[in-house]
């Protein structure tokens, strides 16, 4: 058996909790469901755990847990929501990973994700480290094992992020074909990749300046695009035929890998999970093709070639990572004339706020511990379990158990301030076409909560200078005007106090 296929699903939704209550508010746009998490869970996450293979319209032949046979990652903030609000699907996901380890020689289907979907190349080194560290710890908390691979949000990559991942024990990540800059086979010369034309049906070794390395898998861009945006999932037989045709064209011992948003299977394409299930079961019965996951394939096919990445590149912006900081032209509704100049002003405002609160955090937390940033990294323990007992144990473990109650509360407030400083960089805030959408509003709510925590330790008014920068973030809606109006109309009204 010498031909392999791996289907990867990136399952993710941005965190939607109100920062003052910790609960997801009702979202009318998700009607008839309470909110978008609930809606997409019912349309995608739950159906993929029990996907039906049908004969005709009325007869169910088999029910399949797709997660058991595909590679996948769940965003940590989404998985935490699921653990509380959709326990049955959550348990099905965990069970699928356990079962997949039996199927794939001890290599599980699940891989980790950098914590809250921050665009890593645009983050500072401290935040990159915490994002990877928290992503690993979150994975271990849920799946009870160390992750072999990690998904980078929007596959946005730079060398520093790969260095941190390698340092913390991650073996591989997955990128788009256009993110390969140069490749080299053994002792041959480096060759520039032009128009994504290179052999991406195998892993590559990316050597890093530190002497470490990271294995990179590149998915099939054309086929992945057909799955995500074409009509392949309208019919299970059509999907299976197209995939089988692609496999048969591949060379010996090659890996055909596709990657899409996991929501493709059921949310973006109704009944897409059924088409996927039909294909997965059909492949299992094919004696000439082996279904695999990246960890299993890597164990038996270590990379022979090397690659250099396109720095500051991603899978969803043709201009690199400009979609998250500039009016690069990438948008959803290309038929409507609109400006995304607001993206740069929004990032400028958040960067300014982060730097102001960094100074507050370092000054105040230094009163209690020698390394405030190490403490922030370790605080994932009380993000995952915020019970009073766990918080007390955390303080004891960090040598802070003897603090008085007032100082203990200050430590937790400072850590919460930092958590919101990271949540406010969740990538969805920049992805869409206007600053008045629910995604930018959400990250501005996180910024507002961080400002409130900062005000507990610093007399300066950070909100007004923050809003002055947001005034430059012009909305495409003349009634909204700019980011300041968005903040005053939609952020301040979301605040809840005792």
Task: Give a brief rundown of this model.
With 498 residues, the chain is α/β, with parallel strands linked by helices. The chain has helices at 36-49, 76-85, 87-103, 125-143, 159-167, 221-229, 236-249, 272-284, 294-300, 342-365, 372-378, 380-384, 388-397, 405-423, 428-431, 438-455, 463-470, 483-491; strands at residues 3-11, 51-55, 59-64, 71-74, 112-113, 150-151, 172-175, 180-185, 191-192, 204-207, 213-218, 255-261, 289-291, 305-309. The longest helix is centred in the last third of the chain and has 24 residues, at 342-365.
Question: Could you characterize the architecture of this molecule?
Answer:
The chain is an alpha/beta fold. The protein has two domains: 3-309, 7-stranded beta/alpha barrel, CATH 3.20.110.20; 324-494, no CATH class. The protein has 18 helices and 14 strands. It has helices at residues 36-49, 76-85, 87-103, 125-143, 159-167, 221-229, 236-249, 272-284, 294-300, 342-365, 372-378, 380-384, 388-397, 405-423, 428-431, 438-455, 463-470, 483-491, and strands at 3-11, 51-55, 59-64, 71-74, 112-113, 150-151, 172-175, 180-185, 191-192, 204-207, 213-218, 255-261, 289-291, 305-309. Strands 7-11-10-14-8-9 form a six-stranded mixed beta sheet, with helices on one face. Strands 1, 4, 12 and 13 form a four-stranded parallel beta sheet that branches. The protein has a two-stranded antiparallel sheet with strand order 2-3. Helix 4 links the parallel strand 5 (112-113) and strand 6. The radius of gyration is 23 Å and the shape is globular. The termini are far apart. The mean pLDDT is 95.
């Amino acid at each position: 058996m010498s031909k392999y296929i791996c289907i990867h699903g990136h399952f993710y939704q941005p965190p939607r909790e109100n920062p003052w209550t910790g609960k997801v508010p009702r979202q009318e746009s998700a009607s008839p469901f309470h909110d978008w998490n609930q809606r997409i869970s019912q349309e995608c996450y739950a159906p993929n755990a029990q996907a039906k293979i049908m004969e005709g319209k009325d007869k169910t032949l088999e029910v399949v847990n797709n997660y058991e046979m595909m590679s996948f990652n769940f965003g940590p903030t989404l998985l935490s929501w699921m653990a509380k609000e959709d326990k049955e699907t959550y348990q099905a996901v965990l069970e699928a990973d356990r079962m997949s380890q039996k199927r794939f020689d001890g290599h599980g289907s699940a891989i980790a994700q950098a914590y809250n979907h921050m665009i890593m190349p645009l983050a500072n080194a401290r935040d990159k480290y915490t994002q990877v560290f928290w992503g690993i710890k979150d994975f271990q908390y849920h799946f009870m094992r160390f992750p072999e691979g990690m998904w980078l949000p929007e596959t946005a990559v730079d060398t520093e992020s790969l260095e941190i991942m390698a340092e913390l024990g991650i073996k591989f990540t997955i990128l788009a074909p256009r993110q390969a800059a140069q490749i080299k086979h053994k002792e041959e010369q480096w060759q520039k990749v032009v128009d994504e034309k290179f052999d991406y049906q195998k892993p590559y070794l990316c050597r890093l300046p530190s002497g470490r390395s990271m294995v990179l898998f590149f998915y099939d861009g054309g086929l992945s695009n057909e799955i995500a945006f074409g009509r392949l999932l309208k019919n299970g037989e059509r999907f299976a035929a197209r995939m089988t045709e692609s496999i048969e064209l591949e060379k010996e011992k090659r890996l055909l890998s596709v990657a899409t948003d996991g929501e493709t299977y059921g949310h973006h394409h109704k009944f897409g999970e059924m088409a996927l299930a039909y294909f997965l079961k059909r492949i299992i019965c094919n004696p000439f093709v082996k279904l695999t996951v990246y960890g299993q394939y890597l164990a038996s096919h270590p990379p022979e070639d090397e690659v250099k990445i396109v720095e500051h590149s991603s899978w969803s912006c043709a201009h690199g990572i400009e979609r998250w900081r500039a009016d690069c032209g990438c948008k959803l509704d290309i038929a409507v004339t609109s400006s995304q100049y607001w993206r740069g002003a929004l990032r400028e405002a958040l960067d300014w706020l982060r730097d102001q609160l960094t100074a507050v955090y370092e000054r105040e937390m230094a009163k209690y511990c020698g390394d405030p940033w190490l403490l922030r990294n370790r605080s994932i323990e009380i993000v995952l379990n915020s019970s009073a007992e766990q918080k007390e144990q955390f303080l004891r473990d960090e040598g802070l158990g003897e603090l008085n109650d007032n100082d203990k509360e200050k430590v937790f407030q400072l850590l919460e301030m930092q958590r919101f400083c990271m949540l406010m960089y969740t990538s969805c805030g920049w992805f869409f076409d206007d600053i008045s959408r629910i995604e930018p509003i959400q990250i501005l709510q996180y910024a507002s909560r961080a400002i409130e925590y900062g005000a507990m330790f610093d007399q300066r008014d950070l909100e007004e200078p923050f809003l002055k920068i947001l005034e430059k973030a012009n909305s495409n809606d003349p009634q909204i005007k700019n980011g300041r109006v968005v903040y005053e109309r939609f952020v301040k009204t979301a605040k809840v106090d005792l």
